[in-house]
Amino acid sequence: MCGFQRSFIELLKGNFYESFTIYPAMLPIIITVVVTIVFYIYNRQKLKKVVQVMLLFDLSIMVFTCFFNNLVT
Q1: What is the DSSP letter of 24?
Q2: Chain segment 28-68, per-residue pLDDT in tens
Q3: Residue 41, SS3?
Q4: Residue 11 CB neighbour total at 10 angstroms
Q5: Is 73 a residue whose pLDDT tops 70?
Q6: pLDDT for the residue numbered 49
Q7: Of 23, 28, 35, 72, which is least packed with CB atoms within 10 Å of its CB?
Q8: Where do the H-state alpha helices sit in 1-73?
Q9: Cα(51)–Cα(17) distance, rounded to whole angstroms?
């Protein structure tokens, strides 16, 4: 299993700290998905910018984590 799957399983078990240490971008991704669903249901223009910023934030977390893990190991 990849880190995303292991993190998701730990999150389902209620182990938030373990989930975060395995894959730090898991919680922001879930929040982004929920906000995106709300955006598509209500189709509000204000949420469009919020979703874009959240996606950039998620991407930056993933890139930083990837570089950090490659530098450490």
Answers
A1: T
A2: 888 888 888 888 787 777 777 888 888 888 888 888 877 87
A3: helix
A4: 18
A5: no
A6: 80
A7: 72
A8: 3-13, 16-22, 26-42, 45-72
A9: 25
